[in-house]
Amino acid sequence: MITWEEFIYFAIAAVLLWAVGAWAAWRDKTAIAYTSTIAGLAIFFSFILMMWISLERPPLRTMGETRLWYSLFLPLAGIIVYSRWKYKWILSFSAVLALVFICVNLLKPEIHSKTLMPALQSPWFAPHVIVYMFAYAVLGASAVMALYLLSFRKKAITKVESGITDNLVYVGLAFMTVGMLFGALWAKEAWGHYWSWDPKETWAAITWMSYLVYVHYRQIPTHNPKLALWVLLVSFVLLQICWWGINYLPSAQGSSIHTYSV
Amino acid sequence: MWTKPWTMKEGFLIGGGLIFAGLMLQLSVGPVVWEAFAWPTNGIVLAGFLAIIIGMFLLRKRVYAFRFIGTYQAAIPTLMYAVAMTIIMGLTRQRAGGVSPEMAVDGTWLNNMLTFWPFVLVYVYMAVILGMVVLQSLLTIRRSPFTIHYSLLSHLGLFLTMAAATLGNADMQRLKMITGIGQPEWRALTQEGAIREMPMAIELRQFIMETYDDGSPKRFASKIQILTESGKNIETTVDVNKPVEVEGWKIYQYGYDTQMGAMSQTSILEFVRDPWLPLVYTGIYMMLGGAVCMFVFGGRKKGL
Q1: Using CA atoms, how far apart are residues B194 and A53, in angstroms rounded to an integer?
Q2: What residue segments make up the domains of chain B, in order of their start?
Q3: Cβ <8 Å between B240 and A219
Q4: Could you say which of 3.40.50.620, 2.60.98.10, 3.40.50.1100, 1.20.1420.30 is the CATH number of the domain covering B174-273?
Q5: Each residue of A68-120: pLDDT tens digit?
Q6: A134: nearest Cα among A196, A201, A180
Q7: pTM for the whole structure
Q8: Which of A113, A174, A194 sits opposite B298 (nearest CB)?
Q9: Which residue of chain A comes nearest to B280, CA vs CA?
Q10: Low-confidence ranges of chain B (pLDDT < 50)
Q11: Which of B159, B271, B287, B295 to mutate to test the interface with A (most CBs of A within 10 A)?
Q12: What is the ipTM of this complex?
Protein backbone atom coordinates (compact mmCIF):
# COMPACT_ATOMS: atom_id res chain seq x y z
CA MET A 1 0.00 0.00 0.00
CA ILE A 2 1.43 3.30 -1.06
CA THR A 3 1.43 6.31 1.29
CA TRP A 4 2.63 9.90 1.34
CA GLU A 5 5.97 8.57 2.63
CA GLU A 6 6.80 7.36 -0.88
CA PHE A 7 5.75 10.60 -2.55
CA ILE A 8 9.25 12.10 -2.57
CA TYR A 9 10.71 9.37 -4.81
CA PHE A 10 7.99 9.73 -7.42
CA ALA A 11 8.26 13.51 -7.19
CA ILE A 12 12.02 13.55 -7.75
CA ALA A 13 11.79 11.19 -10.72
CA ALA A 14 8.98 13.19 -12.30
CA VAL A 15 10.63 16.58 -11.76
CA LEU A 16 13.91 15.31 -13.25
CA LEU A 17 12.09 14.05 -16.34
CA TRP A 18 10.21 17.34 -16.68
CA ALA A 19 13.48 19.24 -16.37
CA VAL A 20 15.00 17.16 -19.17
CA GLY A 21 11.89 17.83 -21.27
CA ALA A 22 12.17 21.56 -20.61
CA TRP A 23 15.83 21.57 -21.57
CA ALA A 24 15.07 19.63 -24.75
CA ALA A 25 12.40 22.15 -25.73
CA TRP A 26 14.95 24.98 -25.58
CA ARG A 27 17.31 22.93 -27.75
CA ASP A 28 14.55 22.18 -30.29
CA LYS A 29 14.79 18.45 -29.57
CA THR A 30 11.07 18.05 -29.85
CA ALA A 31 10.98 14.25 -29.60
CA ILE A 32 12.91 14.22 -26.33
CA ALA A 33 10.80 17.06 -24.98
CA TYR A 34 7.64 15.04 -25.58
CA THR A 35 8.85 11.65 -24.37
CA SER A 36 10.56 12.96 -21.26
CA THR A 37 7.65 15.18 -20.20
CA ILE A 38 5.13 12.42 -20.85
CA ALA A 39 7.26 9.89 -18.94
CA GLY A 40 7.34 12.30 -16.00
CA LEU A 41 3.58 12.70 -16.20
CA ALA A 42 3.15 8.91 -16.26
CA ILE A 43 5.28 8.47 -13.14
CA PHE A 44 3.50 11.25 -11.30
CA PHE A 45 0.09 9.99 -12.35
CA SER A 46 0.95 6.46 -11.28
CA PHE A 47 1.54 7.81 -7.78
CA ILE A 48 -1.89 9.47 -7.83
CA LEU A 49 -3.46 6.25 -9.09
CA MET A 50 -1.84 4.17 -6.38
CA MET A 51 -2.92 6.68 -3.76
CA TRP A 52 -6.41 6.41 -5.19
CA ILE A 53 -6.32 2.65 -4.74
CA SER A 54 -4.82 2.70 -1.25
CA LEU A 55 -7.16 5.44 -0.05
CA GLU A 56 -10.11 3.60 -1.61
CA ARG A 57 -11.39 6.94 -2.90
CA PRO A 58 -10.16 9.56 -5.40
CA PRO A 59 -7.43 11.69 -3.80
CA LEU A 60 -9.30 14.95 -4.29
CA ARG A 61 -10.48 15.96 -0.88
CA THR A 62 -7.74 17.64 1.13
CA MET A 63 -5.75 20.65 -0.04
CA GLY A 64 -2.67 18.45 -0.23
CA GLU A 65 -4.48 16.08 -2.55
CA THR A 66 -5.72 18.83 -4.85
CA ARG A 67 -2.17 20.22 -5.00
CA LEU A 68 -1.15 16.78 -6.23
CA TRP A 69 -3.44 17.18 -9.23
CA TYR A 70 -2.31 20.74 -9.72
CA SER A 71 1.30 19.57 -9.96
CA LEU A 72 0.22 17.00 -12.53
CA PHE A 73 -1.81 19.40 -14.63
CA LEU A 74 0.79 22.12 -14.92
CA PRO A 75 3.18 20.01 -17.04
CA LEU A 76 0.19 18.47 -18.80
CA ALA A 77 -1.11 21.92 -19.74
CA GLY A 78 2.47 22.79 -20.64
CA ILE A 79 2.84 19.90 -23.08
CA ILE A 80 -0.57 20.61 -24.64
CA VAL A 81 0.33 24.28 -25.16
CA TYR A 82 3.75 23.21 -26.43
CA SER A 83 2.26 20.82 -28.97
CA ARG A 84 -0.17 23.44 -30.18
CA TRP A 85 1.90 26.62 -30.28
CA LYS A 86 5.51 25.41 -29.90
CA TYR A 87 6.54 27.94 -27.26
CA LYS A 88 10.03 26.92 -26.13
CA TRP A 89 9.71 28.40 -22.65
CA ILE A 90 6.41 26.83 -21.66
CA LEU A 91 7.82 23.50 -20.46
CA SER A 92 10.45 25.15 -18.24
CA PHE A 93 7.81 27.35 -16.82
CA SER A 94 5.30 24.58 -16.12
CA ALA A 95 8.02 22.40 -14.60
CA VAL A 96 9.08 25.14 -12.19
CA LEU A 97 5.48 25.81 -11.13
CA ALA A 98 4.86 22.08 -10.63
CA LEU A 99 8.01 21.91 -8.53
CA VAL A 100 6.72 24.71 -6.31
CA PHE A 101 3.53 22.80 -5.56
CA ILE A 102 5.39 19.55 -5.03
CA CYS A 103 7.65 21.32 -2.51
CA VAL A 104 4.63 22.74 -0.71
CA ASN A 105 3.27 19.20 -0.40
CA LEU A 106 6.59 17.86 0.86
CA LEU A 107 7.14 20.64 3.38
CA LYS A 108 3.62 21.05 4.61
CA PRO A 109 2.03 17.64 4.82
CA GLU A 110 -1.55 17.86 5.98
CA ILE A 111 -3.75 15.33 7.66
CA HIS A 112 -4.46 12.77 5.01
CA SER A 113 -7.32 10.67 6.21
CA LYS A 114 -8.98 7.85 4.39
CA THR A 115 -12.56 8.87 4.90
CA LEU A 116 -14.84 10.38 2.31
CA MET A 117 -18.15 11.69 3.55
CA PRO A 118 -21.32 10.58 1.74
CA ALA A 119 -21.86 13.99 0.10
CA LEU A 120 -18.62 13.55 -1.84
CA GLN A 121 -19.35 10.03 -3.04
CA SER A 122 -20.56 10.87 -6.50
CA PRO A 123 -19.50 10.30 -10.09
CA TRP A 124 -19.37 14.12 -10.34
CA PHE A 125 -16.64 14.44 -7.74
CA ALA A 126 -13.64 13.59 -9.93
CA PRO A 127 -14.60 15.54 -13.07
CA HIS A 128 -15.68 18.61 -11.08
CA VAL A 129 -12.42 18.94 -9.18
CA ILE A 130 -10.08 17.71 -11.93
CA VAL A 131 -11.49 20.12 -14.50
CA TYR A 132 -11.21 22.97 -11.99
CA MET A 133 -7.61 22.08 -11.13
CA PHE A 134 -6.73 22.07 -14.81
CA ALA A 135 -8.36 25.49 -15.21
CA TYR A 136 -6.41 26.80 -12.21
CA ALA A 137 -3.17 25.48 -13.68
CA VAL A 138 -3.69 27.16 -17.06
CA LEU A 139 -4.91 30.40 -15.50
CA GLY A 140 -1.88 30.29 -13.22
CA ALA A 141 0.24 30.13 -16.35
CA SER A 142 -1.55 33.16 -17.78
CA ALA A 143 -0.97 35.06 -14.52
CA VAL A 144 2.76 34.36 -14.61
CA MET A 145 2.81 35.45 -18.24
CA ALA A 146 1.08 38.69 -17.24
CA LEU A 147 3.54 39.22 -14.41
CA TYR A 148 6.45 38.68 -16.77
CA LEU A 149 5.08 41.12 -19.34
CA LEU A 150 4.31 43.76 -16.73
CA SER A 151 7.54 43.65 -14.78
CA PHE A 152 10.44 42.18 -16.72
CA ARG A 153 9.80 43.34 -20.23
CA LYS A 154 11.07 46.77 -21.08
CA LYS A 155 9.80 46.84 -24.65
CA ALA A 156 6.18 47.20 -25.66
CA ILE A 157 4.10 44.04 -25.49
CA THR A 158 3.92 42.34 -28.87
CA LYS A 159 0.81 40.93 -30.54
CA VAL A 160 2.24 37.44 -30.22
CA GLU A 161 2.77 37.79 -26.48
CA SER A 162 -0.69 39.11 -25.75
CA GLY A 163 -2.02 36.41 -28.09
CA ILE A 164 -0.36 33.74 -25.95
CA THR A 165 -1.95 35.23 -22.85
CA ASP A 166 -5.33 35.28 -24.57
CA ASN A 167 -5.02 31.64 -25.59
CA LEU A 168 -4.18 30.57 -22.05
CA VAL A 169 -7.12 32.53 -20.66
CA TYR A 170 -9.51 31.06 -23.24
CA VAL A 171 -8.48 27.52 -22.38
CA GLY A 172 -8.52 28.23 -18.64
CA LEU A 173 -11.86 30.01 -18.74
CA ALA A 174 -13.41 27.21 -20.82
CA PHE A 175 -12.36 24.63 -18.24
CA MET A 176 -13.43 26.88 -15.37
CA THR A 177 -16.88 27.23 -16.94
CA VAL A 178 -17.19 23.47 -17.36
CA GLY A 179 -15.99 22.90 -13.77
CA MET A 180 -18.51 25.38 -12.42
CA LEU A 181 -21.43 23.95 -14.41
CA PHE A 182 -20.49 20.37 -13.45
CA GLY A 183 -20.57 21.68 -9.88
CA ALA A 184 -24.07 23.05 -10.43
CA LEU A 185 -25.33 19.77 -11.90
CA TRP A 186 -23.77 17.85 -9.02
CA ALA A 187 -25.16 20.25 -6.40
CA LYS A 188 -28.65 19.53 -7.71
CA GLU A 189 -28.13 15.81 -7.11
CA ALA A 190 -26.42 16.20 -3.74
CA TRP A 191 -28.01 19.20 -2.08
CA GLY A 192 -31.26 19.63 -3.99
CA HIS A 193 -30.35 22.91 -5.66
CA TYR A 194 -27.94 23.79 -8.46
CA TRP A 195 -26.93 27.15 -7.01
CA SER A 196 -27.32 28.22 -3.39
CA TRP A 197 -24.90 31.18 -3.14
CA ASP A 198 -22.80 29.15 -0.77
CA PRO A 199 -19.57 31.14 -0.11
CA LYS A 200 -17.61 28.86 -2.43
CA GLU A 201 -20.19 29.38 -5.18
CA THR A 202 -20.24 33.12 -4.59
CA TRP A 203 -16.47 33.33 -5.00
CA ALA A 204 -16.58 31.02 -8.02
CA ALA A 205 -19.00 33.46 -9.66
CA ILE A 206 -16.75 36.40 -8.76
CA THR A 207 -13.69 34.72 -10.27
CA TRP A 208 -15.55 33.67 -13.38
CA MET A 209 -16.93 37.16 -14.05
CA SER A 210 -13.54 38.71 -13.39
CA TYR A 211 -12.00 36.61 -16.16
CA LEU A 212 -14.94 37.59 -18.37
CA VAL A 213 -13.93 41.22 -17.80
CA TYR A 214 -10.51 40.40 -19.26
CA VAL A 215 -11.91 38.50 -22.24
CA HIS A 216 -14.34 41.30 -23.13
CA TYR A 217 -11.90 44.11 -22.47
CA ARG A 218 -9.40 42.57 -24.90
CA GLN A 219 -12.04 42.85 -27.62
CA ILE A 220 -12.05 46.66 -27.51
CA PRO A 221 -9.63 47.80 -30.23
CA THR A 222 -8.46 50.85 -28.29
CA HIS A 223 -7.89 49.01 -25.02
CA ASN A 224 -4.79 49.39 -22.89
CA PRO A 225 -2.84 46.08 -22.98
CA LYS A 226 -1.18 46.72 -19.63
CA LEU A 227 -4.49 47.37 -17.94
CA ALA A 228 -5.76 44.10 -19.41
CA LEU A 229 -2.83 42.27 -17.81
CA TRP A 230 -3.64 43.91 -14.48
CA VAL A 231 -7.19 42.60 -14.76
CA LEU A 232 -5.66 39.16 -15.21
CA LEU A 233 -3.56 39.50 -12.07
CA VAL A 234 -6.51 40.72 -10.00
CA SER A 235 -8.56 37.81 -11.34
CA PHE A 236 -5.88 35.39 -10.22
CA VAL A 237 -5.92 36.87 -6.71
CA LEU A 238 -9.70 36.40 -6.63
CA LEU A 239 -9.18 32.82 -7.81
CA GLN A 240 -6.87 32.19 -4.85
CA ILE A 241 -9.55 33.46 -2.47
CA CYS A 242 -12.02 31.08 -4.10
CA TRP A 243 -9.62 28.16 -3.98
CA TRP A 244 -8.18 28.33 -0.44
CA GLY A 245 -8.49 31.89 0.88
CA ILE A 246 -12.13 31.21 1.65
CA ASN A 247 -11.06 28.93 4.49
CA TYR A 248 -9.78 32.02 6.28
CA LEU A 249 -12.68 34.37 5.50
CA PRO A 250 -14.79 35.11 8.58
CA SER A 251 -17.88 35.41 6.37
CA ALA A 252 -17.49 31.81 5.22
CA GLN A 253 -16.70 30.25 8.60
CA GLY A 254 -19.17 27.55 9.43
CA SER A 255 -21.60 28.64 6.76
CA SER A 256 -20.09 26.90 3.76
CA ILE A 257 -21.23 23.42 2.88
CA HIS A 258 -18.12 23.26 0.73
CA THR A 259 -15.66 22.74 3.57
CA TYR A 260 -14.17 19.29 3.39
CA SER A 261 -10.47 19.83 4.00
CA VAL A 262 -9.83 18.62 7.50
CA MET B 1 -18.78 62.92 -21.52
CA TRP B 2 -21.94 61.71 -23.28
CA THR B 3 -20.49 62.55 -26.71
CA LYS B 4 -21.04 59.70 -29.12
CA PRO B 5 -19.68 57.12 -29.30
CA TRP B 6 -19.99 56.46 -25.59
CA THR B 7 -17.05 54.82 -23.88
CA MET B 8 -16.65 52.78 -20.70
CA LYS B 9 -16.94 56.04 -18.75
CA GLU B 10 -20.56 56.34 -19.74
CA GLY B 11 -20.91 52.64 -19.02
CA PHE B 12 -19.65 53.16 -15.47
CA LEU B 13 -21.98 56.13 -14.99
CA ILE B 14 -25.01 54.13 -16.13
CA GLY B 15 -24.09 51.33 -13.72
CA GLY B 16 -23.51 53.84 -10.94
CA GLY B 17 -26.92 55.34 -11.68
CA LEU B 18 -28.48 51.90 -11.40
CA ILE B 19 -26.88 51.35 -8.02
CA PHE B 20 -28.14 54.75 -6.87
CA ALA B 21 -31.62 53.93 -8.13
CA GLY B 22 -31.37 50.63 -6.30
CA LEU B 23 -30.50 52.36 -3.05
CA MET B 24 -33.48 54.69 -3.47
CA LEU B 25 -35.75 51.71 -4.08
CA GLN B 26 -34.33 49.92 -1.05
CA LEU B 27 -35.03 52.97 1.11
CA SER B 28 -38.51 53.54 -0.25
CA VAL B 29 -40.03 50.09 -0.84
CA GLY B 30 -37.68 47.87 1.17
CA PRO B 31 -35.95 44.68 0.04
CA VAL B 32 -36.95 42.77 -3.09
CA VAL B 33 -39.78 40.39 -2.28
CA TRP B 34 -38.98 37.37 -4.40
CA GLU B 35 -42.02 35.41 -3.17
CA ALA B 36 -44.19 37.87 -5.05
CA PHE B 37 -42.92 36.35 -8.28
CA ALA B 38 -44.74 33.05 -7.90
CA TRP B 39 -46.55 31.70 -10.98
CA PRO B 40 -48.13 33.23 -13.00
CA THR B 41 -46.45 36.53 -12.09
CA ASN B 42 -42.99 35.28 -13.05
CA GLY B 43 -44.28 34.12 -16.43
CA ILE B 44 -45.77 37.55 -17.08
CA VAL B 45 -42.62 39.30 -15.88
CA LEU B 46 -40.47 37.12 -18.12
CA ALA B 47 -42.70 37.85 -21.13
CA GLY B 48 -42.60 41.57 -20.33
CA PHE B 49 -38.85 41.46 -19.87
CA LEU B 50 -38.36 39.75 -23.24
CA ALA B 51 -40.75 42.24 -24.87
CA ILE B 52 -38.78 45.18 -23.45
CA ILE B 53 -35.48 43.76 -24.71
CA ILE B 54 -36.90 43.08 -28.16
CA GLY B 55 -38.44 46.56 -28.19
CA MET B 56 -35.15 48.17 -27.30
CA PHE B 57 -33.45 46.09 -29.94
CA LEU B 58 -35.92 47.21 -32.60
CA LEU B 59 -35.47 50.85 -31.60
CA ARG B 60 -31.68 50.63 -31.42
CA LYS B 61 -31.16 52.57 -34.66
CA ARG B 62 -33.24 55.47 -33.37
CA VAL B 63 -32.21 55.49 -29.73
CA TYR B 64 -28.48 55.58 -29.22
CA ALA B 65 -28.68 54.46 -25.58
CA PHE B 66 -30.29 51.18 -26.66
CA ARG B 67 -27.59 50.64 -29.25
CA PHE B 68 -25.00 51.24 -26.56
CA ILE B 69 -26.40 48.48 -24.31
CA GLY B 70 -25.13 45.80 -26.67
CA THR B 71 -21.53 47.03 -26.66
CA TYR B 72 -18.39 45.95 -24.80
CA GLN B 73 -18.29 49.46 -23.33
CA ALA B 74 -21.59 48.74 -21.58
CA ALA B 75 -20.83 45.11 -20.72
CA ILE B 76 -17.44 45.55 -19.05
CA PRO B 77 -18.44 48.16 -16.44
CA THR B 78 -21.54 46.10 -15.66
CA LEU B 79 -19.44 42.98 -15.16
CA MET B 80 -17.14 44.97 -12.89
CA TYR B 81 -20.07 46.24 -10.83
CA ALA B 82 -21.38 42.68 -10.61
CA VAL B 83 -17.93 41.52 -9.45
CA ALA B 84 -17.81 44.30 -6.84
CA MET B 85 -21.32 43.62 -5.52
CA THR B 86 -20.68 39.90 -5.40
CA ILE B 87 -17.37 40.47 -3.54
CA ILE B 88 -19.35 42.39 -0.91
CA MET B 89 -21.65 39.39 -0.74
CA GLY B 90 -18.64 37.08 -0.40
CA LEU B 91 -17.15 39.13 2.41
CA THR B 92 -20.29 39.49 4.50
CA ARG B 93 -22.08 36.71 6.26
CA GLN B 94 -25.30 36.02 4.38
CA ARG B 95 -28.54 35.17 6.09
CA ALA B 96 -29.62 31.63 5.36
CA GLY B 97 -32.59 31.61 3.02
CA GLY B 98 -32.22 35.35 2.53
CA VAL B 99 -34.93 35.26 -0.08
CA SER B 100 -37.77 35.10 2.39
CA PRO B 101 -38.78 38.36 4.07
CA GLU B 102 -39.33 36.81 7.52
CA MET B 103 -35.71 35.80 7.57
CA ALA B 104 -34.46 38.95 5.90
CA VAL B 105 -35.56 41.29 8.66
CA ASP B 106 -32.46 40.69 10.74
CA GLY B 107 -29.03 41.85 9.65
CA THR B 108 -28.17 44.77 7.44
CA TRP B 109 -28.80 45.15 3.72
CA LEU B 110 -25.41 43.65 3.06
CA ASN B 111 -26.28 40.47 4.95
CA ASN B 112 -29.20 40.00 2.57
CA MET B 113 -27.62 40.70 -0.79
CA LEU B 114 -30.11 38.61 -2.75
CA THR B 115 -32.89 41.00 -1.76
CA PHE B 116 -30.71 44.13 -1.98
CA TRP B 117 -31.98 46.28 -4.86
CA PRO B 118 -28.60 47.55 -6.16
CA PHE B 119 -27.32 43.96 -6.36
CA VAL B 120 -30.46 42.79 -8.11
CA LEU B 121 -30.56 45.72 -10.55
CA VAL B 122 -26.95 45.21 -11.62
CA TYR B 123 -27.70 41.58 -12.46
CA VAL B 124 -30.96 42.50 -14.21
CA TYR B 125 -29.05 45.02 -16.33
CA MET B 126 -26.51 42.30 -17.09
CA ALA B 127 -29.38 40.14 -18.34
CA VAL B 128 -30.61 43.01 -20.53
CA ILE B 129 -27.13 43.34 -22.04
CA LEU B 130 -27.02 39.58 -22.63
CA GLY B 131 -30.40 39.76 -24.34
CA MET B 132 -29.28 42.56 -26.66
CA VAL B 133 -26.07 40.69 -27.52
CA VAL B 134 -28.04 37.53 -28.29
CA LEU B 135 -30.43 39.41 -30.60
CA GLN B 136 -27.53 41.09 -32.38
CA SER B 137 -25.76 37.81 -33.06
CA LEU B 138 -29.04 36.13 -34.09
CA LEU B 139 -29.45 38.84 -36.72
CA THR B 140 -26.04 38.22 -38.23
CA ILE B 141 -25.98 34.47 -37.71
CA ARG B 142 -25.95 33.50 -41.39
CA ARG B 143 -23.01 35.55 -42.48
CA SER B 144 -20.90 35.24 -39.38
CA PRO B 145 -18.00 32.88 -38.82
CA PHE B 146 -18.38 29.90 -36.53
CA THR B 147 -16.80 31.73 -33.62
CA ILE B 148 -19.87 33.96 -33.29
CA HIS B 149 -22.00 30.85 -32.82
CA TYR B 150 -20.24 29.74 -29.67
CA SER B 151 -20.47 33.25 -28.35
CA LEU B 152 -24.20 33.13 -29.07
CA LEU B 153 -24.45 29.76 -27.32
CA SER B 154 -22.67 31.09 -24.22
CA HIS B 155 -24.60 34.35 -24.00
CA LEU B 156 -27.99 32.79 -24.64
CA GLY B 157 -27.20 29.98 -22.19
CA LEU B 158 -26.27 32.42 -19.45
CA PHE B 159 -29.34 34.56 -20.15
CA LEU B 160 -31.65 31.55 -19.92
CA THR B 161 -30.00 30.21 -16.78
CA MET B 162 -30.09 33.55 -14.98
CA ALA B 163 -33.63 34.45 -16.01
CA ALA B 164 -35.13 31.03 -15.29
CA ALA B 165 -33.24 30.51 -12.04
CA THR B 166 -34.14 33.94 -10.67
CA LEU B 167 -37.77 34.12 -11.77
CA GLY B 168 -38.37 30.44 -11.11
CA ASN B 169 -37.06 30.60 -7.57
CA ALA B 170 -40.46 31.54 -6.18
CA ASP B 171 -41.97 28.39 -7.67
CA MET B 172 -39.37 26.12 -6.19
CA GLN B 173 -40.64 24.06 -3.30
CA ARG B 174 -38.42 22.48 -0.68
CA LEU B 175 -39.99 20.56 2.14
CA LYS B 176 -38.67 18.27 4.83
CA MET B 177 -40.40 15.10 5.94
CA ILE B 178 -39.51 13.21 9.06
CA THR B 179 -40.18 9.54 8.43
CA GLY B 180 -40.22 6.82 11.02
CA ILE B 181 -40.19 3.05 10.96
CA GLY B 182 -43.67 1.61 10.80
CA GLN B 183 -45.39 5.01 10.55
CA PRO B 184 -46.54 6.13 7.11
CA GLU B 185 -46.06 9.91 6.88
CA TRP B 186 -47.56 12.30 4.35
CA ARG B 187 -47.04 15.66 6.04
CA ALA B 188 -43.96 17.76 5.41
CA LEU B 189 -42.58 21.04 6.69
CA THR B 190 -42.08 24.02 4.39
CA GLN B 191 -39.01 26.23 4.78
CA GLU B 192 -41.14 28.68 6.73
CA GLY B 193 -42.18 25.89 9.10
CA ALA B 194 -45.74 25.36 7.89
CA ILE B 195 -47.16 21.86 7.57
CA ARG B 196 -48.23 20.69 4.14
CA GLU B 197 -49.78 17.47 2.94
CA MET B 198 -47.83 15.74 0.20
CA PRO B 199 -49.42 13.72 -2.62
CA MET B 200 -47.74 10.58 -1.29
CA ALA B 201 -47.16 8.76 1.97
CA ILE B 202 -43.77 7.41 2.92
CA GLU B 203 -42.89 4.71 5.38
CA LEU B 204 -39.33 4.15 6.51
CA ARG B 205 -38.46 0.47 6.16
CA GLN B 206 -34.89 0.62 7.30
CA PHE B 207 -32.33 3.29 8.03
CA ILE B 208 -28.92 2.27 6.72
CA MET B 209 -25.78 3.68 8.26
CA GLU B 210 -22.23 2.61 7.58
CA THR B 211 -19.21 4.17 9.26
CA TYR B 212 -15.48 4.20 8.72
CA ASP B 213 -13.08 2.76 11.29
CA ASP B 214 -12.76 6.19 12.91
CA GLY B 215 -16.53 6.47 13.31
CA SER B 216 -17.14 9.10 10.65
CA PRO B 217 -20.14 8.40 8.42
CA LYS B 218 -19.46 6.46 5.23
CA ARG B 219 -22.97 6.05 3.97
CA PHE B 220 -26.45 6.84 5.18
CA ALA B 221 -29.54 5.92 3.29
CA SER B 222 -33.21 5.16 3.75
CA LYS B 223 -35.07 2.14 2.51
CA ILE B 224 -38.55 3.49 2.01
CA GLN B 225 -41.93 2.51 0.72
CA ILE B 226 -43.82 5.17 -1.20
CA LEU B 227 -47.56 5.10 -1.70
CA THR B 228 -48.75 7.81 -4.07
CA GLU B 229 -52.18 9.37 -4.25
CA SER B 230 -52.52 7.94 -7.73
CA GLY B 231 -52.12 4.47 -6.22
CA LYS B 232 -48.52 3.65 -7.10
CA ASN B 233 -46.60 1.55 -4.62
CA ILE B 234 -42.84 2.00 -4.87
CA GLU B 235 -40.09 0.44 -2.81
CA THR B 236 -36.75 2.15 -3.14
CA THR B 237 -33.63 3.35 -1.37
CA VAL B 238 -32.70 7.02 -1.09
CA ASP B 239 -28.97 7.64 -0.74
CA VAL B 240 -27.03 10.86 -0.35
CA ASN B 241 -26.20 11.97 -3.91
CA LYS B 242 -28.85 9.61 -5.30
CA PRO B 243 -32.25 11.27 -5.05
CA VAL B 244 -35.36 9.43 -6.17
CA GLU B 245 -37.85 11.04 -8.53
CA VAL B 246 -41.56 10.41 -8.01
CA GLU B 247 -44.28 12.31 -9.85
CA GLY B 248 -42.31 15.51 -10.35
CA TRP B 249 -40.81 15.47 -6.86
CA LYS B 250 -37.19 14.71 -6.17
CA ILE B 251 -36.70 13.03 -2.81
CA TYR B 252 -33.34 13.46 -1.11
CA GLN B 253 -31.73 11.85 1.89
CA TYR B 254 -31.38 14.88 4.15
CA GLY B 255 -30.65 13.81 7.69
CA TYR B 256 -31.31 11.43 10.55
CA ASP B 257 -31.40 11.30 14.30
CA THR B 258 -27.76 12.13 14.92
CA GLN B 259 -28.03 11.30 18.62
CA MET B 260 -28.98 7.73 17.77
CA GLY B 261 -26.53 7.48 14.86
CA ALA B 262 -26.68 4.08 13.23
CA MET B 263 -29.58 3.12 15.52
CA SER B 264 -31.68 6.02 14.24
CA GLN B 265 -35.34 5.12 13.96
CA THR B 266 -36.14 8.20 11.92
CA SER B 267 -34.85 9.61 8.67
CA ILE B 268 -35.33 13.12 7.33
CA LEU B 269 -36.10 13.33 3.63
CA GLU B 270 -36.21 16.47 1.55
CA PHE B 271 -38.79 16.97 -1.18
CA VAL B 272 -37.81 19.31 -4.00
CA ARG B 273 -39.91 20.47 -6.90
CA ASP B 274 -38.65 23.01 -9.40
CA PRO B 275 -40.85 23.46 -12.49
CA TRP B 276 -38.34 25.84 -14.07
CA LEU B 277 -35.50 23.32 -13.92
CA PRO B 278 -35.71 22.19 -17.58
CA LEU B 279 -35.25 25.80 -18.71
CA VAL B 280 -32.30 26.28 -16.35
CA TYR B 281 -30.72 23.04 -17.54
CA THR B 282 -31.19 24.05 -21.18
CA GLY B 283 -29.20 27.17 -20.38
CA ILE B 284 -26.54 25.22 -18.52
CA TYR B 285 -26.09 22.76 -21.39
CA MET B 286 -25.83 25.64 -23.86
CA MET B 287 -23.11 27.22 -21.76
CA LEU B 288 -21.34 23.86 -21.55
CA GLY B 289 -21.46 23.64 -25.34
CA GLY B 290 -20.19 27.20 -25.59
CA ALA B 291 -17.29 26.43 -23.25
CA VAL B 292 -16.29 23.31 -25.18
CA CYS B 293 -16.35 25.28 -28.45
CA MET B 294 -14.34 28.04 -26.80
CA PHE B 295 -11.68 25.51 -25.85
CA VAL B 296 -11.58 23.95 -29.30
CA PHE B 297 -11.82 27.09 -31.44
CA GLY B 298 -11.17 29.98 -29.09
CA GLY B 299 -7.41 29.97 -29.16
CA ARG B 300 -7.08 29.74 -32.92
CA LYS B 301 -5.77 33.07 -34.00
CA LYS B 302 -3.83 33.61 -37.15
CA GLY B 303 -0.11 34.00 -36.84
CA LEU B 304 0.19 32.65 -33.32
Answers
A1: 47
A2: 8-171+277-297, 174-273
A3: no
A4: 2.60.98.10
A5: 998 999 999 899 888 877 888 889 988 998 998 899 888 876 555 657 888 88
A6: A180
A7: 0.90
A8: A174
A9: A194
A10: 98-104, 301-304
A11: B295
A12: 0.94
